[in-house]
Amino acid sequence: MKTQKTIRAALLGCGTVGGGVYKLLDRRKEELADKAGASLEISAVLVHNVNKKREGVDPSLLTDDFERIANDPSIDIVIEVMGGIEPARTMILRSLRAGKNVVTANKDLIAVHGSELLSAARENKVDLLFEAAVAGGIPIIRPLKQCLAGNELSDVVGIVNGTTNYILTKMFEENMDFDAALEKAKELGYAEADPTADIEGLDAGRKVAILASTAFHSPVVFDDVYTEGITKISSSDIKYAKEFDCVIKLLGIARERQEQIEAYVCPMLLPADHPLATVRGSFNAVFVHGDAVDDVMFYGRGAGEFPTASAVVGDVIDVMRNMEYGCTGRIGCGCYRSVPVKQFRDVKNKFFIRMQVINRPGVLAAIAGELGRHKVSISKVVQKVITKGSAELVIVTEDVKEYHMSEALEDLKELEPVQEISSVIRSY
Ligand SMILES: NC(=O)c1ccc[n+]([C@@H]2O[C@H](COP(=O)([O-])OP(=O)(O)OC[C@H]3O[C@@H](n4cnc5c(N)ncnc54)[C@H](OP(=O)(O)O)[C@@H]3O)[C@@H](O)[C@H]2O)c1
């Protein structure tokens, strides 16, 4: 009779994701031996509060003592789903140095300390996998590292934050204003009590850092990523977007152009016929362009208990398969180049500028002249009379460098007929 090998793992964290991982591993228990060549036993679950009741979790496994896990040589896989930088970083480093494989969903940590952790994994010939850290349930890290390895990738553009995509969808489809849409997102559990990291683009920025490093084989950290959120988007902007046959999406952009990486997050007008424009509600998607594959898009749930657990458990099964064949650490850090990240002031984009102006002859010419002085070319102008004396002017520019645009805006504000610059939104 064939003896069944058992691999032992520890969970660090048993909240939304950890609870999902525990339940999903339990659901897949019977198939794991066939899928991964061994059965899996969760032998410890690290939490803050061991007395809290956790549905479906064996209470005897709960511990608040990481040493018990670090010093247990029978534990081969550590699944870190507690979040934050410390103590997660120290716990992962200790686990890797003790020869344990690590699976993590921690984008905050990977976006800042990914290189350090991946180096430690390589030195110890163990796996460090983090599929769940970007876009939750959507497979994107493994496709970038493996399936698309035959390509030179140039563009990775994502809607990688479900909260903001939900808010913008409500604003676009139901004419809600930002505050009402945010309240609705909170009610449904899509937004946290403190939504800053989502609505200011920080969460998406962390994912862009990870995507850029993975796609372009060169380290990009969160500090390299320019981030701008969606709080300034108004119903008027949405109305114009519709008029221009566009939607407004918070896009995370990672591009390589002329041996430089561009990495930023900002709301953008996106043509309605772009595949990312169809991504509605709390769904996420990542659009990739490679020289061989052309365009590919990955779509799905970017967060939540089971979608995120799906990515974590997929990684755990990969580790188990690698263990079976003695090849852990096979696909580690892919950063074999050092490509500079372009300063955001030098990045080029088209801009949508909405302003209130005095309605009299010659105003448009004065504004166009000021823009021209700063190398800003105009591709579209719409003017609507609001009152007899004032008008709303919308200008869409051609591609222009960020610093030319911001200098032009500073000077426009000083122009006598310009009463207010109401919105400045980049256009994809
Ligand atoms: N939620 C999602 O949809 C999602 C999606 C993708 C990625 N992620 C990532 O997954 C990770 C976990 O997120 P989550 O939403 O599951 O968080 P969560 O619900 O807040 O759960 C965190 C868990 O970690 C435990 N914990 C936190 N700090 C600890 C410490 N110092 N010592 C021991 N235990 C500690 C907590 O213990 P107690 O239960 O005792 O408080 C809790 O069980 C984060 O890195 C997050 O960015 C989450």
Query: Radius of gyration over alpha carbons?
Result: 24 Å
Q: What percent of the residues sit in helical stretches (DSSP H or I)?
A: 25-40%
* Intertermini distance: 62 Å
Average pLDDT, to the nearest integer?
96
What does this structure look like?
The chain has 428 residues and is of the alpha/beta class. It has helices at residues 16-27, 29-36, 66-70, 88-97, 107-123, 141-147, 162-174, 178-187, 196-199, 202-216, 235-243, 305-324, 363-373, 402-414, and strands spanning 6-12, 39-46, 62-63, 75-80, 101-104, 128-129, 153-159, 226-227, 246-257, 260-271, 283-290, 294-301, 348-358, 378-385, 390-397, 400-401, 418-427. The chain contains 14 helices and 17 strands. The chain is elongated, with a radius of gyration of 24 Å. The mean pLDDT is 96. The strands form two sheets. Strands 7, 8, 9, 10, 11, 12, 13, 14, 15, 16 and 17 form an eleven-stranded mixed β-sheet that branches. The chain has a six-stranded parallel β-sheet with strand order 3-2-1-4-5-6, with helices on both faces. Helix content is 36%, strand content 27%. Helix 1 crosses helix 12 (305-324) and helix 7 crosses helix 8 (178-187).
Write the SSE topology:
Elements: E1 6-12, H1 16-27, H2 29-36, E2 39-46, E3 62-63, H3 66-70, E4 75-80, H4 88-97, E5 101-104, H5 107-123, E6 128-129, H6 141-147, E7 153-159, H7 162-174, H8 178-187, H9 196-199, H10 202-216, E8 226-227, H11 235-243, E9 246-257, E10 260-271, E11 283-290, E12 294-301, H12 305-324, E13 348-358, H13 363-373, E14 378-385, E15 390-397, E16 400-401, H14 402-414, E17 418-427
Helix pairs in contact: 1-12, 4-5, 5-10, 7-8, 13-14
